[in-house]
Write a structure and sequence with these properties.
mainly alpha
Length: 87
């Protein structure tokens, strides 16, 4: 019987290495997974650029606020408002 494929991210999570797992997930392009891992260890500043890269402005605003970056949250929200005006 063949064993399931080895996933380094699951291994790291099992050993509490969330930041390392998030780095690998981000490198793989699994941005939402990386964000969730960063959030689990309250690394909102690290998750923020990933949300911006995804184009998820609502999530980015929340992460900026969680990271205590209200000015950055305002910038993101203002950019979303400006884009909405173009539609």
């Amino acid at each position: 019987m063949e064993s399931p494929p080895y996933d380094i991210i699951e291994y790291l999570i099992a050993h509490g290495a969330y930041i390392e797992a998030a780095h690998i997930a981000a490198d793989r392009g699994e941005l939402r997974r990386a964000i969730a891992l960063y959030e689990r260890v309250w690394r909102f500043v690290d998750a923020l650029p990933l949300a911006v890269a995804l184009g998820d402005r609502g999530l980015a605003v929340r992460l900026a606020l969680d990271a205590n970056l209200p000015a950055r949250a305002n910038e993101i929200a203002d950019a979303a408002s400006a884009d909405a005006d173009l539609i």
